[in-house]
DNA sequence: ATCATAGTCGTCTCACTGACGATAAACACT
DNA sequence: AGTGTTTATCGTCAGTGAGACGACTATGAT
């Protein structure tokens, strides 16, 4: 019964991107304003159709490049450019998620360093970074009277899933370094954890932990004082991808 | 440019199932023999097309019921039948993964208690439990000269991903109880961990750990001696879904 | 000089794990 | 009945690692 080529319903397949970065001590996601109905004028996650002979990860990387100029390197391809981390997140296929037609969307998660300065994509719609807190607490009010309109489609759910993935994944992997520039200090890395988790961490215990985990950080020899205060050692991400034992997210 | 209803390429969307259980001290997966080309006669994961107005999880549950009679309850639906655990695993969409057409498959992971006695699905193809070790070590030789033919399509990769998900998820969640019947002993739960991880665990430390984690196990009052030896207390799964601190998988 | 800021090193305590001894309660033999 | 085997369960002890927090260092700002 299966595999009668004329007997399967056709689907549209898209990729949606949860692009996260840390800006000004808070976790932000890339959103674009929709220029057409449905949800015209609302914010949405960037994304688009998968092409006829294009792999899912390739489609995600292409959309990312179109939208931000970032060059994603997924972990399988260890071409360590200035690229961001890209991984598949989950797939959303509720029959009613798009009112126009049956669309199955394969969401991807991208973790990028700060300040790629979002540029408008091929379309004229605008793009911006928005704090995930404001995007998800649609019931609450943004800090400065920000728009409280929820994201288009089921994108709030997708974003929430992506944020949760990022929050849990930096516990047991070295992925937090994907939010940092090529060289960074322990303090900068700590501020990434604090922004993603939304908690305060003890600088001394954090320093002991990350410098004591073999393969996590390698010193470059340089120092910097860009954060003020005493100069800090600069590090690059080490080869280790899994943290064992993991970073512990403080209770509640 | 996006969302021109005539401008997106049509895809077939399927669900594939990684159904895992523990039988005779080893982790086994449900496989079906393909009755038609391509890969005719080879073993494959059960699965099928998503219907036109069917949710992805619903399609997975339907295929599971057709194939095994199991009633899956996904965690969102806390209808705790004799059902198995079901969750989305990942999506596979390589343009060449199916030689006939462009198929995107949303793989799901099912964890089931032992012995649902696989029944043939709607089709005449046979179904069986096979140790994942034999299915994945296609280069090696099965214990009893089992067939060494690899799984059809990219199903070996999907199975490997599902097994890895199960192995890591029982570390920090109470999901191992999904492999157990409604009432079980600490020893039975330990043998689940041992089978999934492929290691031996110290019975005394394991007992201390699981009985000391609040919300993991609740005693039913009964005892059983079905494993031989001293009678063991019976437990049900408690309300806790996350284990904190996690079970630690022994090194190497 | 003094202060504020941020980084780095140490110490103490507690929780938890791994290794492993000891006891308990069933069954299968003799 | 006794002995051995099997599995369950309780205890002990040492080592690792995390949280709390004191102390010191090196820079820029006032």
**Number of separate strands of chain A:** 9
Tally of DSSP helical segments of chain A:
5
Shape-level CATH architecture of the largest domain in chain A: Alpha-Beta Complex
- The run of helices and strands of chain A is EEEEHEEEHHHHEE
**Nearest-angstrom radius of gyration of chain A?**
20 Å
**Which runs of chain A of at least 5 residues are low in confidence (pLDDT < 50)?**
none
Please indicate the percent range of residues of chain A in DSSP E strands (runs of 2 or more). 15-25%
* Largest interface: pair, residues per side: A-B, 35 and 35 residues
Helix coverage percent of chain A = 10-25%
CATH class of the largest domain in chain A: Alpha Beta
Largest sheet report of chain A: 7 strands, mixed
Q: What would the average pLDDT of chain A be, to the nearest integer?
A: 89
Q: What separation lies between the terminal Cα atoms of chain A? A: 51 Å
Number of structural units classed as domains of chain A:
2
Morphology call of chain A: elongated
Oligomer: homodimer
Instruction: Give the full name of the CATH homologous superfamily of the largest domain in chain A.
Output: Nucleoside Triphosphate Pyrophosphohydrolase
What structural class is derived from the secondary structure elements of chain A?
A: alpha+beta
InterPro entries (chains A, B): NUDIX_hydrolase-like_dom_sf, NUDIX_hydrolase_CS, NUDIX_hydrolase_dom, WH-like_DNA-bd_sf, WH_DNA-bd_sf, WHD_NrtR
GO molecular function, one term (chains A, B): nucleotidyltransferase activity
Keywords (chains A, B): Hydrolase, Nucleotidyltransferase, Transferase
Protein name (chains A, B): Bifunctional NMN adenylyltransferase/nudix hydrolase
